[in-house]
Amino acid sequence: MTRLEMEGVRAFYGQALALDEVSLSAGRGEVVALLGRNGAGKSTTLKAVMGLVRVGAGRIAFDGADLGALPSHRRARLGIGYVPEERRIFTDLTVAENLEVGRQPARPGAPTWTEARIWALFPPLEALRRRPGGRLSGGEQQMLAVARTLMGNPGLLLLDEPSEGIAPILVAAMADAVLALKAEGLTILLSEQNLRFAARVADRAYVLSQGRVAATGTMGALLSDQAAIGRHLSTGP
Amino acid sequence: MDSLIGTLRLLAEEPSFAVAQALTGLAGASSLFLVSAGLTIVFGVTRVVNFAHGSFFMVGAYVAVSAITLVGFWPGMLVAALAVGALGVAVEVGILRRIYRAPELFQLLATFGLVLVIQDATLWLWGPEDRMGPRAPGLRGAVDVLGQPVPLYDLFLIAVGPLVLALLWLVFRRTRWGVLVRAATADREMTAALGVDQKRLFTGVFALGALLAGLGGALQVPREAANLHMDLNVIAEAFVVVVVGGMGSIVGAYLAAVLIGVVHAFGVLLFPKLTLVLVFLIMAAVLVVRPAGLLGEAPVPAGGGHGTGEPPLRPASPLLKLAGAALLVLLALLPLATEGYALVLMVDVLALALFAASLHFLMGVGGMISFGHAAYFGIGAYGAALAAKYLAAPMELALAFAPLAAAVAGLAFGWLCGRASGVYLAMLSLAFAQIAWSVAVQWLEVTGGDNGILGLWPSPWAAGPGAYYYLTLGLTTAGLLAIRWLAHTPFGQSLRAGRDSPRRAEALGMSVGARQWAAVAVAGAFAGLAGGLFAYAKGSVFPSFLAISRSVDGLVMVLLGGVQSLTGPIVGAIAYIGLADQLVRGVEYWRLVLGATIILLAVAFRGGLAGIAIRRAGAP
Amino acid sequence: MTLLAVDDVAKAFGAVAAVAGVSLSVAAGERVALIGPNGAGKTTCFNIINGQLRPDRGRVAFDGRDVTGWRPRALARRGVGRTFQISQTFPSLTVRENVQMAMAAHGGRGAAIGRPLRRLDPAGADAVLERVGLRADGDRGAGALAYGDAKRLELAMVLAQSPTLLLMDEPTAGMAADERHQLMDLVSRLAREEGIGLLFTEHDMDVVFGHADRIVVLDRGRVIAAGDPAAVRADETVRRVYLGLDDA
Prior knowledge:
The complex is a heterotrimer of chains A (237), B (620) and C (248).
Chain A: E1 2-13, E2 16-27, E3 31-35, H1 42-50, E4 54-62, E5 65-66, H2 72-78, E6 80-83, H3 95-102, H4 115-121, H5 138-150, E7 156-160, H6 168-183, E8 187-192, H7 195-201, E9 204-209, E10 212-218, H8 219-224, H9 226-233
Parallel strand pairs in A: 3-8, 3-9, 6-7, 7-8
Antiparallel strand pairs in A: 1-2, 1-4, 4-5, 9-10
Chain B: H1 2-13, H2 15-46, H3 53-71, H4 73-94, H5 104-126, E1 142-145, E2 148-151, H6 152-174, H7 176-186, H8 188-193, H9 198-220, H10 230-245, H11 250-270, H12 275-289, H13 318-337, H14 341-365, H15 374-390, H16 395-416, H17 422-442, H18 444-447, E3 453-454, H19 465-488, H20 490-500, H21 502-507, H22 512-538, E4 540-541, H23 548-561, H24 568-583, H25 590-618
Antiparallel strand pairs in B: 1-2, 3-4
Helix pairs in contact in B: 1-2, 2-6, 2-9, 2-10, 2-11, 3-4, 3-5, 3-9, 3-10, 4-9, 5-25, 6-7, 10-11, 10-12, 10-17, 11-12, 13-19, 14-19, 14-22, 14-23, 14-24, 15-16, 15-17, 15-22, 16-22, 19-20, 19-22, 20-22, 23-24
Chain C: E1 2-13, E2 16-27, E3 31-35, H1 42-49, E4 57-62, E5 65-66, H2 72-78, E6 80-83, H3 95-106, H4 122-132, H5 147-159, E7 165-169, H6 177-194, E8 197-201, H7 205-211, E9 214-219, E10 222-227, H8 229-234, H9 236-241
Parallel strand pairs in C: 3-8, 3-9, 6-7, 7-8
Antiparallel strand pairs in C: 1-2, 1-4, 4-5, 9-10
């Protein structure tokens, strides 16, 4: 069953065209990776789904319903969760308060999260319950950012560069967490520059280049296509 | 001087006297804190500076006076606070919600219009007399503190401040709603992406802010009669408190309110005429040491960039030049057609056109919002009058003194607020103007207070109505052409450039701050010249020359003519005096009409401007 | 001749060391690219060089003079020009006036009131616009320019000040592929013809490898490789850290 569907989406930053006719889909319980260099349009794709950038043309549907010009808080209440690249933790709020901001009522068809379940998924956070978000390490902030969004009981999780800027050992923990969420039936769309991380968690991937989908396929097939990797992900000519 | 030394000696010899005075200051600080806390909470979340916040304070006081007679003292306090909270909801839903995405200037203007509307609504409901409330039951007496009598109610007020601070702390730390407000204050977009409905949150925050202001007003009733000046007096002080405490910091607001309250209490003893000046100096001192206020964080500098500018300035078209020349000839011929009232009226129009043009130079060219431009107009007028009165200066010299005095005031204000921009500048400019006004009212010995300074006569050669008209026409025309010329020169264009993209300007080696500082002085000088001409036209100066309403006149003239056009202020002045001044001021409740018009302009104009911006952003 | 010499600069934000001892240099006429993964310290390093940040330690020298901690406008007056990732122009001025403004500031007449800005050496301004291909657009409002044209206008403004060093932050971000190479060809030609030193950050590897004489690769606040494009492309550390290709 298709959970997310994008068709011919164009999006702008100011006057610069950031997405040019992007189409993609993600099914229930599927992990889909967006690959590509910086500036290729990965983050913008996620923001377009969340309603955070101006979409000039095209259609984005969640569980079959067109999201149209719905404001982002309504999208969140439909069950779309977003974890930004910069994490955007509320630095003055404690870990528990950050989770509180994300909390929403239980939703049929999506797993329900409590603080206790969050501690089970990210054990290091429990001891930091009363600590302000601004005094966490990068990896802890990343966990908190994901946990905060989970408290909204999403059916679709948008993860922008979940492995970026965190210690290697935490990258592995983050990959485990993503796989655990997948096992619960969540749909996950994530952007990644780290091919190894994407290879570990994703079922399928779209390669973006200059705002367009340049290639798509299963993760395995893409990895074996050295030419595509060379063209879109590495040093070029 | 003798009295100052006497007071100092008294304070030194009688520490108990100083303690009692400090307690009075603390009592006054509580109300100020309630108003400022509301202002800062609302700004934190909505990013709107609500000029009408002082009006909520005033309404709270009036409602309390009435409610107490109906339901008793303490229930009356509660009723007042809740009623003002409800008024806040109506204002947020009815007006503010429509302008959250509008440019800052239009947000400020809309709430400013609200100030005028509420002022006349209060006048209509309660009448022009001050309304004294009863004293608090059970708190009527005084207690002895170190031998000095201190009113019990003052001690109660002293306790209210920390109590409300503690309650607010609990709300923001211990309730889900409070946590959401703090989250939205830090990052509105992220909070929305987590499913929080901002509309409802904003309404709630605004209601809380209004409720606090209303409560502050109600609590003031036993100390001070409810009156129609409360709104602007308290908002000017609240702006100072919020800026000194640091925008968005509630604890900072409390500290600043205490500081200002105590300074006020001692200032009344030491410099009874200049208490507000003292307050402004304290603010200056704090801002020099901590530009973001006691507990504030530095404001994020404006972005700038590409694609959001105004149309470029073009040289006057032959048609415009022709029209200008024709208008000038027509104006020059006017005295041949009439001798009477029309000439007197035209002198007003010309002086105010120059005033509006100087404000336009500051806002439209320099990008600096001023809600206190009348300060320069008034300082020019008073400068000329004082020069004539104390230096026996002839008109020619006094008129030269007018722009000079205003430019010096501009330099001083620009230095104090050099690092401020946007809403900070708007707030500080209003506070500055209010302080200049209070000096004119309070410093009887020098300014004559409300009686003003009379007997300003033009030199004999310019004494006839026709001659003075020509003098005004000549100086105004020269001033308007000079302002227009300046806008086109590298100086004026670099102001527009610095406004468009401060980072680009700095990267090209230009100092944006120094230019803006100069621009404040230049705009001040032209406003001061207008004030001087106006003063000699009237033969007298009064505090109303630098009242807030005069600043509003300027803003409306600029708005009517259009912020983006250099010819706008002239057209605006003619339209404003012709229509508004003659028609609207004939109506009893002209403020209400004017305020409603401003709100309408701000809400409707926004559609137009935003529309232009969107069309541009959408272009390939 | 060494134009820019950055010696062991470091900058920490709180406990995070964004730049932990970086040294690099740019010679006159040389094009140097500064690359690295997100969070490697490129932006911090760039902002230390252009004067927006003061380093915790280390030294930045330009033209033999210590300019550590100088403000952007002081650097500009010494001959350091810069462009921004999101181009910064003056949209309320005409295209020609944008260049004239830059010329006025360069000549110390940026706040003059003697005559209108538009009469200030229009021919000279047009000559600069000619070099970036915007001569025909001189009378248009700069706000009406397309994105790529705005980037070229920004370059024209910088060139109008005859800089000896040019700092470009992501010069081709947000541009279409053919536009990218046009812009960089133009910049390369100017660097060669006028001996301007160029330091730029860039994500597009085609642009980097096509237009840099030398490449400096940052990771976690340190230089992990530096050299000509061929050497950097062959560097194992670079391939592993920057390109995430260790198991591909």
